Amino acid sequence: MGLFDFFKKDKESKEQQQALDEGLQKTKTSFFDQLSKAVVGKATVDEAVLDDLETLLVHADVGIDTTVKVIDRIEKRVARDKYVNTSELDRILREEIVDLLQDNRTSGSSAILDRPDSPGQPFVIMVVGVNGVGKTTTIGKLAHRFHSAGKKVVLGAADTFRAAAVDQLIIWGQRVGVPVISHGMNTDPASVAYDAIKQGVDLGADVVIIDTAGRLHNKVNLMNELNKIKRVMQKVIPDAPHEVLLVLDGSTGQNAFLQAKEFTKATEVSALAITKLDGTAKGGVVIGISDQLQVPVRYIGVGEKMTDLQLFDRRTFVNSLFRK
Questions:
Q1: Looking at residue 3, what is its pLDDT?
Q2: What is d(CA 74, CA 44) in angstroms, rounded to the nearest whole number?
Q3: Can you give the pTM of this predicted structure?
Q4: Is residue 92's pLDDT more than 80?
């Protein structure tokens, strides 16, 4: 890496850190204002402080089950260490949350940028999620991320039940500068996926990203449709898709968790992208969803810019969340 590349990377890293800090500001302000009130006048972490902390975590949309797990871990540390000062609570809470989150930096699509170009077949990402969560925008931002790193990207507009989704993906493709395979609205989604992957193979693409329908009228239909798309993909690449990425709207809090549970029943979700964290105080939902589903968070959306879809790093995320 040359000196120019080093400074460029360092600048990009600082810009991403700033975007993350700003994107989590509403969650940080809400949580730490309340945490400060909970410990004011207290010297040690006692039962009353833990009760207040439990309430705070629930209000931050961490979720009941994960909150109970965090509180239980802190109780054990207090019992073991006998005396835990309230000034240490931030550090302890940070450590416990990092332990709960799964590390994903070297797996799935997060490792694409480190893969050699054209490794023989494209890495196929099938993107799922209900309408309105930012699914198509997330695909566009992912395409930008990979394309900017010099990777060959092909998009497949297989959400054919909604005209806006097809048109929006085509616009994103033009904006980023990558090809979009589309058959238009009310066509067979599986056929679109097949052609997109075939095109990806023919072009020597590194990544093929397939958009899918945001909502079918019941879970059985959703399951059947997604399974059909998978089967057709596998006619071209036997082990496709290599990642099923579920996009969730972080601003919906526990509704996002309920959506995640439904989609994990309908298909084998292997990674999560959680969007719109900059517009909510419910950033704790990232912690709860990852813990309860045991599915890694791959990306988080912290703003409107194309670079504001960030690769999720659990330590960076938690440190930003606790940076006052």
A1: 40
A2: 13
A3: 0.89
A4: yes
Tokens encoding 160: 């054919």
d(CA 65, CA 145): 34
What are the pLDDT digits (tens) for 125-172? Answer: 999 998 888 899 999 999 999 999 999 999 999 999 887 889 999 999
Partners of 155 in the beta sheet?
Answer: 180, 209
Residues 161, 164: Cα–Cα separation, whole Å? 9
Which positions make up the binding site for GTP? 129-136, 211-215, 275-278
| CB-count exposure of residue 126 (10 Å: 0-12, 13-18, 19+) | buried
How would you classify residue 26: left for phi > 0, otherwise alpha for psi between -120 and 50, otherwise beta? alpha
Q: Tell me how far apart the alpha carbons of residues 123 and 208 are, in angstroms, rounded to a whole number.
A: 6
Orientation of helix 89-100 relative to helix 64-81, angle to 10° = 130
> Are the C-beta atoms of 228 and 191 separated by less than 8 Å?
no
| pLDDT per position as a tens digit, 196-221 | 999 999 999 999 999 998 776 567 78
Q: Report how far residue 321's alpha carbon sits from residue 211's, in angstroms, rounded to the nearest whole number.
A: 31
Question: 102-108, long-range: CB within 8 Å, 24+ apart, which pairs?
Answer: 102/290, 102/294, 102/295, 102/296, 102/297, 102/314, 103/296, 103/314, 104/271, 104/296, 104/297, 104/298, 104/312, 105/311, 105/313, 107/296, 108/242, 108/243, 108/270, 108/271, 108/296, 108/298
From residue 242, alpha-carbon distances to 21, 60, 109, 188, 304 in Å are: 31, 33, 8, 21, 27
Report the DSSP pairing between strands 180-181 and 271-275. Answer: unpaired
- The identity of residue 79, as a single letter, is A
Tokens describing residue 151 = 């990777």
Residue numbers in the known binding site are 129-136, 211-215, 275-278
Q: Position 162: which residue type?
A: R
Evaluate whether 157 touches 140 at the Cβ level (below 8 Å).
no
| pLDDT the model gives residue 24 | 82
